Amino acid sequence: MIKSLAGARQPILAVLGTVLALSLSTPANATVSAAAGAVPDSNVTLEVIAANGSGCAPGTASVIANSDRTGFRIRYYDFVAEAGGNAEPTARRKNCQISVLVTVPAGWTFAIAEAEYRGRARLYSGASGLQRTNYYWQGSSANSSTEETFAGPLQGYWQTRDVAPVLIYTPCSEQKVLNINTELRVDGGSSGSKSSMSMKSSDGDVDTLFNFSWTRC
Q1: Residue environment code for 114-129, b if the CB has 16+ CB neighbours within 10 A, otherwise e
Q2: Phi/psi class of residue 60: alpha, beta or left (left: φ > 0; alpha: ψ in -120 to 50)?
Q3: C-alpha torsion sign, points 132, 170, 108, 37
Q4: If you placed Cys at 211, which of 38, 50, 114, 189 could pair as Cys (CB 3.0 to 4.6 Å)?
Q5: pTM, rounded to two decimals
């Protein structure tokens, strides 16, 4: 995992840690395409079939496919956790679980190669924050999770990145539902001021990005 913080009061962080490998079944008839970086010619469709949690009230999260079919983005519009000061006790932890149905063109299958998460932090001295994301495919008992912590004083944009060490592809000719559960948590600690962590698109260049690796069936 690579973690960085931009626009903060302290130097940019770069931490290499645990990498993410989504647990999928490898298709028996899937072979790696000879053309590196090949993508389907026709459209990939994504449908949000469920969105639940204190961080994504109805209508406050969306999924957008990249125009070049290399992946998709999740944008949150009201996803913020805060603690300390006059923050409500229930605001210290927020989560959002999104279920995304991915439909791909015939003759192709994909793996999740990389995921990036971007947000904004305002953590005062003595406060801390946490971003945790858990992934699992519907019908699979396996799941993978990633977690990053941040300590105040810290203010600015943060970004974390997970890279799958092995590309494992979904079965050909099967639609798959990817469940993505993200949590933000803030501990006010000894700070008397209100600290926060957010993944609100209105804060600027803030979203979650999933990158595909394609292969022909």
Answers
A1: bbbbbbbbbbbebbbb
A2: alpha
A3: positive
A4: 114
A5: 0.77
Amino acid at 23: S
- The model's pLDDT over 142-190, given as tens digits with 9 standing for 90+, comes to 566 778 999 999 999 998 888 877 777 878 877 788 899 999 999 999 8
- What is the model's pLDDT at position 53? 94
Query: Closest Cα to residue 97, out of 196, 177, 168?
Result: 177
- The C-alpha atoms of residue 171 and residue 140 are separated, in whole angstroms, by 13
pLDDT at 23 over 60: no
Tokens of 120: 């904004």
Q: CA–CA separation, 40 vs 188, rounded Å?
A: 47
Q: Where are the beta strands (DSSP E) in 53-175?
A: 61-65, 71-76, 80-83, 93-103, 108-123, 128-137, 144-151, 154-163
| Spatial separation of the C-alpha atoms in residues 83 and 194, rounded to whole Å | 6
Q: In this structure, which amino acid lies at residue 201?
A: S
Percent of the chain, pLDDT > 90? Answer: 42
The whole-number pLDDT of residue 20 equals 29
The residues with which 122 forms a beta bridge, in sequence order, are 155, 196
Closest alpha carbon to 184 in 193, 194, 197: 197
